[in-house]
Structure formats: C-alpha cells, structure tokens
Amino acid sequence: MTTQLTLIQIDNYGPWTITPEPRREMDLQTMQSRLFADLAQFIGSRGGYVFFSRFDNMIAVTNGIGRAGHKALQESVRNRYPVTVSLGIGTAETPAAALDEATEQIQAAGSAQDEGRTEVLAGEPLGADADATTHIAHFDVNDATGKYTDQLNEFDSFIHIERSYASLMEYMREAHGALSFFVGGDNIIAVCPDLSAADYRDAINHVERDVGVELKVGVGRGTTAHDAGYAAKHALEDCRYEGTIVEFDHPQATTGDD
C-alpha cells in the first residue's frame, strides 16, 4: 500500500497578514476557516481528506487525485481569495514518509515567506497501477459527554481531549509513521500504514497510561480516504455496540499477539 499526501501551504502568508499594516485577527480567522471549508469541499468531493493542521499549512490525503485536480485546486483558490497556495505531493508506504517527501518538494522551491515563490506544484501523484489502499483509524474518547462535557466547563473538557490527542499523535507518529489529526468534539482521525489490532491496543493503552483518557478506535481501508474513513466510522460504531476498544471493517489475520 502507498499513501499519497499533499502539503498545502499558503504563499507568503506571514508577511501578507501584516501588509500594509496588521490585519484584524477575526478577519484572518474568518479567511482561514473559509479557505479550509472550501478545500475540504473540493478535496472531499474527489474522495480525499484534508486536515487544518496550522491553517497556513494544511495536510491532505489525496489518493486518486492527479496533477490536473491539484492544478484546479490552485486555480480555485486564486480566483476566490487574496492569497495563493503551493502544493507538494508525496507518496510512500507510511504517511509520515509521504509528508516528508511532500514537504521537501515545496521547500526546494523556496521559503514559505518568499514573495517570488507562488503556486508551486511539485511531486508526482501515484500511477494508475499503484496499490493506493488507504488505512484510516477513527478514534474517540469513551463517554466523553458523561466524563467531561456534562461534568466540567468547556475549557477544562478541552484540556482533557487535547491531552489525549497530543499523546496519541506523538505515539502514532513515532511508533508507526502514522499522522493523527484532531477533527472536533472528541474525535481524532489517523492516517496509518497497515497495523494490527495489537498495535492499536498498544496505542490506546499508552494514552490511558500517559494522560488517563480512555479511547476506542474503528479502522477502515479503501482506495480513497473517503472510502477508508467511512468504513472506519462503521467500525467505530461496532466498538460502541460490542463494548470493544478496537474494531476493523475487514477481517484481520490471527497472530500470536491477537
């Protein structure tokens, strides 16, 4: 399996936010949120996923989207916003390695704050004959409403959720080259290589030991992020129904660890 990731970077964004003078913060937040929403609609309609990351740099799973689709995305942003975006495409067996490649493609073209570097499109999408199977893991917090939302104020609830995200994000990145993203509520979506049930249980156990938050996860696979993510949602519902912490949308090979 090979993951295709696209790094989306707003061109020369830092200097733009203060030229000719500092712009109102809520105007910037509005533009960033609208841009993310448009990217999510564009990429999502083509079977991909995009995550807001730091907003000026966003990460997309773009298996099945070719160079023409990437060019159309750049044109859409240019026509609708006062900024442009550069895109770096990377492919590798692990999402982290794919992101490294995508990042290097953009960095080789110049600094993120180089006013002469605009609308870079670098890197090659997967070929038609490549194994483009994508694995998506959808985590959520066990009984987040009962433990946090209905018991604590919103900021303290947010602290607990963010601690679980930070713990899981770092563990999955270091242990497996997976990339995990907070997507709202108590939900975390991870783009993963092909991992076993034992691997996911180890990650969940790590988070509970580290920050005291209990998670469960549904895992799906597909040729696009949408297909894999939708399958993961169904697997997560199986966790809720069965009272388990790890479920897959597809049968797993039995090993001595499982």
CATH architecture of the largest domain: 2-Layer Sandwich
Strand arrangement within the widest β-sheet reads 2-3-1-4-5
| Largest sheet report | 5 strands, mixed
Helix content: 40-55%
Tell me the span between the first and last alpha carbons: 22 Å
CATH superfamily of the largest domain: Nucleotide cyclase, GGDEF domain
CATH class of the largest domain: Alpha Beta
Share in β-strands: 15-25%
Shape: globular
Q: How many separate domains?
A: 2
Do you know the CATH topology of the largest domain?
Alpha-Beta Plaits
What are the low-pLDDT stretches, counting only 5+ consecutive residues below 50?
A: none
Task: State the total count of DSSP E strands.
Answer: 10
Structural class: alpha+beta
Mean pLDDT: 94
Plain-language structure description:
It contains eight helices and ten strands. It is an alpha+beta fold and 258 residues long. The protein folds into two domains: 3-122, 2-Layer Sandwich (Alpha-Beta Plaits); 134-248, Alpha-Beta Plaits (2-Layer Sandwich). The strands form two sheets. A five-stranded mixed beta sheet has the order 2-3-1-4-5. Helix 6 crosses helix 7. The longest helix is centred in the middle third of the chain and has 23 residues, at 154-176. The chain is globular, with a radius of gyration of 19 Å. The mean pLDDT is 94. Keywords: GTP-binding, Hydrolase, Nucleotide-binding. GO terms for molecular function: GTP binding; GTP cyclohydrolase IIa activity. It is an enzyme of class 3 (hydrolase).
Labels describing this entry:
258 residues; alpha+beta; Alpha-Beta Plaits; 2 domains; 5-stranded mixed beta sheet; 8 helices; 10 strands; 22% strand; GTP_CycHdrlase_3; GTP cyclohydrolase III
